[in-house]
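Quick entry, no commentary yet.
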Amino acid sequence: MNLYFAAFASSLLSLAIATSAAEPEPAAMSASELAGRLSAKQQDGNSYIRLKMDVAGGAKGTLQLQIKSRATRGSTELVYQVLFPKERKGESLLLRKAGGGITGTLFTPPNTTQPLSKGQLQQELFGGDLSYEDVIENFFAWGQQAIIGSETLNRVNCTILESKPGKGDHSSYASVRTWVDPRRLVPLRVEKFGSGGRLVRRIDTTRVVTDDLGRAIPANLTVRGSSGSVTEFEGSRLKHGVTFSDAEFTPEGLKALTGHPVPAE
């Protein structure tokens, strides 16, 4: 869910999906075609995002974050950095996905760098209801895809796509279901299931906007964990086509809390 965002991504970045008038409606697509279009839209070059993250509606804390993303068909790199509050400013995360594997590094000021183990990928992102795995995993690229029905969400008749890991896919989830708005090809809900069909996370899109490329994308997300906790994400800025240095996507680069210039029009 690449948040994009999805995040969406990111869960935010990973949910930043768009379509054009020339593309067929999901009803006319096979499951693999629909998943392929959703997957391809996640791999759209370099992006910069600013967003607000409220844990438990802000009761457990509100963070201002920036996200730097580099995505191609072969790999995805993400940097998450805390801008606010002052006492957490500079906390950073680097994630890289390539060849089916995910690696990561955490940085805590003033000078603590910690690589993430495979087992830590399911831990909470900055104390919220998304895991490190959630923000970089692309389940639309998994080997098993099926359209399992439709359902109306917020007066939109959605196509429900079920994704399951295929041979060579590695995930802590057994399956993911996505409710896709067929007109805009925007995921309005994502549900992630563990073994035995246990619902682990639900991600709902609560606001859709048009990005700087003229595409419909989720701007606000509500994430619910299995324990009943809730995390809200509110996007405030998204820019494509920015230029990053290689150093920004290194453990050492996490120590430099710099924003990114807006690309020239």
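second:
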Amino acid sequence: MRIDLRYPLAITEQPQQVLVMGFFDGVHRGHQQVLKTAKKIADERGLELAVLTYDPHPAVVFEKFDAPLTYLTTVDKKVALLTQYGAQRVYVMNFTSQLAALPPQVFVDDVLMALNPAVVVAGFDHTYGADKTVSDMATLPQYAKKRFDVVAVPAFPLDGPKVASRDLRAALAVGDVDLVNVDLGRVYETTGLVVHGEARGRELGFPTANIQTPMLERLPGIGIYAVEIQVGGIWYQAMASIGRNVTFGDGRPVTVEINILNFNQAIYGEHVVVRWCHYLRGEVKFTGAPALIEQLKQDQQATEAWFAARS
């Protein structure tokens, strides 16, 4: 169940529960470890599990952006994943300047206590309140004043670099979906609407579905990928291009075009889901259509071979 909150809170009395704090962009394996720890505690105590997360990202309050901020998981996707990992309530707190300015003791008294936690769980490096130097998980017991227990979950994994959302965003920017998928523990997904494009793919013998991606969803970097696409509830193997079609001119906008293997249906207006399975190559400016067609044939073979190796 999703519950939207804004500070100052106006919320009815909540049941005593185990409360997890975090932004959870991506709900990656590190986040999953925090949720697993909290779920175990909730089950042992016979309590329900709740999550406190935020929207938008705190960076929106503190920084200026030249382009819209995008996410590994939009709010709806994040809530669905948190619920999948055991959360019975997901509190989505509107992150505002007023909330960001709260001293840590006020944050605990006015926000956490309103959610009636028996235990508060978060990653070891989670912070809250205005002064991050005195508002981390090590100091939370001080502000809790014995009203709830505090559990800080160590970095994951223990034997290597921790999984972090910022690193996943950096890997995605350069097209390294293979690493992203490992760290997510699932295949990275985006959604979109099939719209009309230039129909150039059809002219080349490789008809494509042009995907209009929602503004808040983060796409992988420019390149060619082996993907799966869900149309009408059915998953199909495909190859995708994120790029500017530089063979046909400079300064063109970035588009997402997907050639579905062994598929010949008109699907304009369909809402689709795309799984970004494997990076094949970067975008190349070819001397003309014949060279591009030859490369597309190689890309199709590479895509088929990649899926065949995993069947």
